[in-house]
From TrEMBL, chain A:
Keywords: Membrane, Transmembrane, Transmembrane helix. It comes from Pseudooceanicola nanhaiensis. The chain crosses the membrane at residues 116-136, 142-166, 226-248, 263-281, 301-318, 324-344. InterPro entries: Citrate_utilization_prot_B, NarG-like_sf. This is Tricarballylate utilization protein B.
Automatic annotation (TrEMBL), chain B:
Residues 13-439 form the FAD-dependent oxidoreductase 2 FAD-binding domain. GO terms for molecular function: oxidoreductase activity. It holds the Pfam family FAD_binding_2. Keywords: FAD, Flavoprotein, Oxidoreductase. It comes from Pseudooceanicola nanhaiensis. This is Tricarballylate dehydrogenase. Gene3D superfamilies: FAD/NAD(P)-binding domain, Succinate dehydrogenase/fumarate reductase flavoprotein, catalytic domain. Its cofactor is FAD. PANTHER family: FAD-DEPENDENT OXIDOREDUCTASE 2 FAD BINDING DOMAIN-CONTAINING PROTEIN, FUMARATE REDUCTASE. Coiled coil: none annotated.
């Protein structure tokens, strides 16, 4: 029956601590509730009266910065309550990824500094140039530049180690937000939400207010769909290549009418166009409503992701030319950077967001 | 600056004073009929939309499911509800016309950008009568501004209308203060939709008494009744009690203006309420809170310092919608008295007398449980459970003014009544004329209904006049 009201904040006490500030704003929203129909954040808010730190982390990761609630809010600046829920939840969200990331410190570096990400990219590309130059090729296509063995040696750990690090972060997320044992139903609900980007629809399919201020627009959902599905297709292409290589003893290069190419080419196109779209939208959006202090890392990340797609396409388009070697090094360098930085860059958001949807599926059923 | 000069030098078909719901409905209707329309909004852009930006729903007649509304809410029931709250202080013909027109408004609103959502958590009892706006009133206002601008309506912000120039039965121009300069704006017809006067504390104090200086204003500071007063000074006919305002009991820590919905406080029925002298003054459990919060606005206004304190114990803290202000907590009544700066001994005896008057019985927070005090004056007739389990919690209460009743008299075509019959080219809509229909009391969601119905009519009529 009793309630820990000591968790409650004074609505006028604006805080520089991301969790405390998000809590202050969430409490105001819980007393108002006008935005209930926009996204999953508000129904989750109304299930509670006070908010522990873990609750704030969960709410922050449910928010996808559509900004609907900002433009609809009667308490935004210059009002004394100074509501800016997209930015407040963004700050708490980015801060939570930095807190959960293992090893500590790396995420703060790469999320805050686009230059760090760029430096990592340059380093990775240089390494790949070196590898292409120094290590023996063996086989056809780009294996002529860098043999299969060398690729596996570099990319298997570059793929698995970050995933393990991310696993540590996700475990921390799950325990901070009080998650229970995951059921198939939870996974189903979360996967549906993620696959359709349902929450990006603004509650009624009208889209979000990301780049056009009070006007609703579906462009961000479309761009994000392109990025997400493009990335997944590229990933599937790589997996299919691996299967062909090992299970069917059919190594690259593959013709256009092969699983790796039929998945990879459209994937690369979607990924590249999607990232370009995201960059355009980001340019139009009001930075004051984004995650404070992380813009530089976010910009760099979208460029990197788009670069992976574009360099992959170019590599395919300009195969067996004088440019194949350098392009291979650039593509592999950007892929390497993307993989290695997964737990420490905006890339992590996909994983945390899925965890938040899982957690929400659990909480919503109770 | 240059924009104001440019707008002032143009000739408009219709100029609308105000930038809230009523003004926007009028602007959209008029522009759709081909009129060249200018909106003069006194507030800066971030605060555009007056009290409409604080709203959450509107009341709507309907037969069968309509938008988010379920079942049926017909004219007879709607009118009965109105009669009950206004105690008959209404113009029946106008009220019925407004009620009947509300059914058309919902689809019209949707067609002009407003989105609805199912009734909010904790307001299920309203899902038959009130349609909730997705994102609330500011989202509605935003949608209408976009629609109006797409139709070619121009908007000037921070443009304060000071005077309506009238010759005989015709309005000729508006005197408007923009950037500290007074300019004349000319048009062939005018719609006045600039709200009530509750933002002008001096006027409130003159009307209600000095105690009104301690009232909080729940909505916009920009509704200061300037146009209303100017019209009345020029002989326009008025409706509504000039001394009255609709006030509810809200959290005493709310900001002076624009605190809006979140300053709501729902704990009174489960509490004991004392004034500055630590004395009770009214039955806290008379009825469920939505039926009593307006009465409590007046009750608190009548207490010394226009302040009261609602006190509960640990057992009741989880029984009501969360308040945005944290409760003042204490381990004992004496400590609570110290924190509230109330006379400690007096508070102790008040609580002790209340506790002693509580009788055994079943406590049901969700309904009138009849758990009443015995031999206590004033009694508490429901939810009377001793305040005895620490920690003890208190919230302060103050009157929060929603709107004033004084308004312009209009006919069923929204035309403003002058000293010798209606003006030829002056219409009014919204809070500025709502007194005709809401003579006293308030029916949740009816303010937006009146604004939408009369705003639309005013826009249509004004457009027909200039066509
Ligand atoms: C906190 C709160 C919650 C409410 N909730 C609801 C609800 O859920 N449902 C409901 O039906 N009603 C609600 N109401 C009542 C409702 O807000 C009003 O009935 C309605 O908004 C009136 O609309 P309007 O257009 O007449 O006035 P407003 O929306 O107040 O618009 C008046 C406009 O005139 C402008 N103005 C004022 N003076 C001048 C001037 N001299 N020159 C130029 N412009 C001027 C103002 O800036 C403003 O834009 C609520 C009121 C408050 C305070
Ligand atoms: S963002 Fe503003 S309008 Fe929306 S629920 Fe929160 S306080 Fe209310
Ligand atoms: S920004 Fe969008 S997703 Fe985030 S809380 Fe607001 S409405 Fe929900």
């Amino acid at each position: 029956m009793s309630l820990d009201v000591t968790l409650q904040t004074d609505p006028g006490a604006i805080s520089s601590d991301p969790v405390a500030e998000a809590r202050r704003q969430v409490e105001i929203c819980n007393a108002c509730r006008y935005c209930e129909g926009f996204c999953a954040v508000f129904p989750a808010i109304t299930r509670q009266k006070v908010f522990a730190d873990g609750d704030i982390t969960q709410l922050a990761n449910l928010c996808h910065n559509c900004r609907g609630c900002y433009y609809a809010c009667q308490y935004t600046a210059p009002h004394a309550f100074d509501l800016n829920l997209p930015a407040a939840l963004g700050a708490a969200r980015a801060e939570s990824w930095e807190r959960f990331a293992w090893p500590g410190g790396l995420a703060a570096l790469f999320q805050r500094r686009g230059t760090a990400l760029a430096a990592a990219l340059v380093l990775a590309c240089a390494l790949m140039f070196l590898a292409v130059a120094a290590l023996p090729g063996g086989g056809e296509g780009f294996y002529a530049y860098l043999g299969h063995g060398a690729m596996v040696l570099i990319f298997l750990p570059a793929f698995l180690l970050p995933l393990a690090a991310l696993g540590i972060g996700l475990r921390r997320y799950w325990s901070e937000t009080g998650g229970g044992a995951v059921t198939l139903a939870d996974i189903g609900a979360a996967a549906r939400s993620a696959a359709t980007l349902g929450n990006l629809g603004g509650g009624q399919g009208q889209g979000c207010n990301f780049e056009a201020e009070e006007r609703f627009s579906d462009e961000r959902r479309m761009a994000h769909h392109a990025v997400m599905w493009g990335f997944l297709l590229c990933f599937a292409s790589t997996v299919s290549g691996t299967i062909l290589h090992y299970a069917f003893a059919s190594p690259a290069p593959y013709g256009f009418f092969s699983a790796p190419k039929l998945l990879g080419v459209p994937g690369g196109v979607l990924l590249t166009l999607g990232c370009a779209g995201m960059l355009v939208l980001k340019g139009k959006a009001d930075p004051a409503l984004g995650t404070p202090g992380r813009a530089s890392g976010e910009w760099a990340f979208v460029w990197l992701l788009g670069g992976v797609g574009l360099s992959g396409l170019l590599l395919y388009g300009l195969r067996e030319s004088v440019l194949t070697g350098p392009l291979l090094a650039l593509h592999l360098g950007s892929v390497l950077t993307l993989f290695l930085l997964t737990p420490y860059s905006k890339m992590a958001h996909g994983f945390y967001r899925f965890a938040a949807l899982l957690r929400e599926a659990q909480a919503g059923r109770r | 600056m240059s924009e104001a000069i440019a707008r002032a030098s143009e000739t408009w078909d219709i100029i609308i004073a105000g930038g809230g719901n009523a003004a926007l409905c009028a602007a959209i209707e008029a522009a759709e009929r081909g009129a060249k329309v200018l909106i003069l909004e006194g507030a800066p852009k971030p605060y555009r939309g007056g009290n409409s930006r604080h709203t959450r729903n509107f009341r709507c007649m309907h037969h069968g499911d309509l938008g988010p509304l379920v079942e049926t809410y017909d004219e007879a029931e709607f009118f009965d509800d109105l009669i009950r709250v206004t105690k008959g202080e209404t113009d029946e013909a106008l009220a019925r016309m407004c009620i009947r027109s509300s059914e058309d408004c919902l689809p019209w609103m949707q067609a002009h950008g407003v989105r609805f959502q199912p009734s909010l958590a904790g307001t299920l009892s309203l899902d038959r009568t009130n349609a909730f706006f997705l994102g609330g009133g500011k989202a509605l206002v935003n949608a209408y501004y976009l629609t109006a601008q797409d139709l070619g309506v121009k908007v000037l912000y921070e443009a304060q209308v000071r005077h309506v120039g009238i010759e005989g039965a015709r309005a000729t121009h508006l005197e408007v203060e923009v950037d500290g300069v007074t300019r004349h704006f000319h048009a062939r017809a005018f719609v006045l939709a600039s709200g009530g006067f509750q933002g002008d504390i001096d006027w409130l104090a003159r009307a209600w008494g000095e105690s009104a200086r301690n009232f909080l204003i729940r909505g916009t500071p920009y509704n200061r009744g300037v146009v209303l007063k100017d019209m009345l000074d020029q002989g326009a006919r008025s409706v509504g009690d000039p001394t009255q305002c609709h006030a509810v009991a809200i959290d005493g820590r709310a900001p002076k203006y624009d605190g809006g919905i979140v300053t709501r406080l729902d704990c009174v029925p489960f509490s004991v309420v004392v004034n500055r002298n630590a004395e009770r003054f009214y039955d806290e459990g008379e009825d469920v809170w939505p039926k009593r919060y307006a009465i409590w606005g007046r009750l608190v206004a009548a207490q010394p310092g226009q302040v009261a304190y609602s006190i509960i114990d640990a057992r009741s803290i989880d029984l009501f919608m969360p308040s945005v202000y944290p409760p003042i907590a204490a381990g004992s009544i004496a400590e609570l008295a110290a924190k509230l700066e109330l006379p400690a001994e007096r508070l102790r005896t008040t609580i002790a007398a209340f506790n002693a008057a509580c009788r055994p019985g079943d406590f049901h927070p969700q309904r009138l449980d009849g758990l009443a005090t015995g031999g206590l004056e004033p009694p508490k007739t429901n939810w009377a459970r001793p305040i005895e389990e620490p920690p003890f919690y208190a919230y302060s209460l103050r009157p929060g003014v929603t709107f004033t009743y004084l308004g312009l008299k209009v006919d069923d075509r929204a035309r403003v009544a002058g000293p010798d019959g209606p003006y030829e080219n002056l219409w009014s809509a919204g809070e500025m004329m709502a007194g005709s229909i809401l003579g006293q009391g308030y029916l949740a969601g009816f303010g937006m209904t009146i604004g939408t119905v009369f705003g639309r009519i005013a826009g249509q009529e004004a457009a027909a006049h200039v066509a």
